[in-house]
Specification:
Blueprint: E1 5-7, H1 9-17, E2 21-24, H2 27-32, H3 37-51, E3 55-62, E4 65-68, H4 72-80, E5 85-87, H5 89-97, E6 102-104, H6 106-115, E7 120-122, H7 133-136, H8 141-148, E8 152-155, H9 164-173, E9 178-180, E10 200-201, H10 205-217, E11 224-227, H11 238-254, H12 262-273, H13 277-302
Parallel strand pairs: 1-4, 2-3, 2-7, 5-6, 7-8, 8-11, 9-10, 9-11
Antiparallel strand pairs: 3-4, 3-6
Helix pairs in contact: 3-4, 3-13, 6-8, 10-13, 11-12
């Protein structure tokens, strides 16, 4: 067992009894939503995964340990603490070695999930290539992690604040397959369609599991993006969210917002400009992803890895 890993009793029992486990990030708790919706949503998402026959493992860095599965008290601490550090690959060793409180991004959660032997990770949306990256070089570490870490990431695509076309090009260059669920189109977080198609459409968990295990059995390392669109009744109109996104991006530039502060700033502005409707959509898509991820985790456990 890895020296930095600490499993909650629920996750430890799942590992011992062979139950399917689904990893969950913690940045969505500390930086992605306001309190108390963040903690309430985290608890509800965990329960959705339990109800679907899998075990949730929310991951965070606490007291010099990678905590795989959090207690109620730890969830509250993350939801309320202004000091939680947003942890990506670059930050992981620092936060662990210094004993600081850390909330894991997509990239860091993938690393920790792989250390813990967890193959499925559910998030809201992955990071990507930021608009203007040709001059800023602002590209999320999530994409490079997907190129090298063997974890399937269930998401609602990428946020419209990013350059979705370049994000998909980057993933293609690094051999990361993008799978869509229920439609050929790649979703854009708040909206069901981004204007781009995924590489492959695989609608059932069994199909997804067969594809993923075949990929890894071939020695093709790296993750898989499994993109599930937000439910129709909770989706936002594309034209509206696109216009609001452009306005929020302009405000971020005018206020000199850069680096890790960009995404939280933009999401907060979009929430304000949509009068809270975007937060409702955000919560709905995460819950939907949890259902898709739990089904995939069960299918991966049941689907034998093809021989090479």
């Amino acid at each position: 067992m890895h020296q930095f890993l600490s499993f909650s009793p629920e996750v430890a029992n799942a590992r011992a009894t062979g139950k399917p486990i689904v990893a969950l990030e913690s940045t969505i708790i500390s930086h992605g939503m306001p309190y108390p919706q963040n903690v309430q949503t985290a608890r509800e998402v965990e329960q959705i995964i339990r109800d679907a026959g899998a075990v949730p493992a929310t991951i965070a860095i606490i007291g010099g340990k990678i905590c795989v599965g959090l207690t109620e008290e730890q969830l509250e601490e993350l939801g309320n603490s202004p000091d939680a550090i947003k942890v990506s690959r670059r930050d992981l060793a620092y936060v662990l070695s210094q004993g600081k409180l850390g909330a894991t991004t997509v990239a860091a959660t993938m690393i920790c999930a792989q250390l813990a032997g967890i193959k499925v990770f559910v998030t809201g949306g992955i990071g990507g290539v930021h608009r203007g990256a040709e001059t800023s070089m602002d590209i999320s570490a999530d994409l490079q992690e997907l190129a090298q870490t063997n974890v399937a990431v269930v998401c609602a695509g990428v946020k419209s604040i990013l350059d979705i076309g370049l994000t998909l090009e980057y993933l293609e260059t690094h051999g990361v397959p993008v799978v869509s669920v229920g439609q050929p189109g790649f979703p854009a977080f708040f909206t069901r369609e981004s204007g781009f198609n995924a590489d492959f459409q695989l609608d059932t968990a069994a199909e997804q599991a067969s594809f993923i295990t075949t990929k890894w059995a071939l020695g093709l390392n790296g993750g898989v993006v499994v993109s599930a669109p937000v439910p129709v009744e909770e989706a936002m109109p594309k034209d509206e969210i696109d216009a609001i996104t452009l306005r929020a991006l302009q405000e971020a530039e005018e206020n000199g917002v850069t680096g890790k502060k960009v995404t939280p700033f933009l999401l907060a502005r979009i929430k304000a400009l949509t009068e809270g409707r975007s937060l409702k959509t955000n919560i709905a898509l995460v819950k939907n992803n949890a259902r898709v991820g739990a089904a995939l985790a069960r299918a991966l456990q049941e689907h034998p890895c093809p021989s090479t």
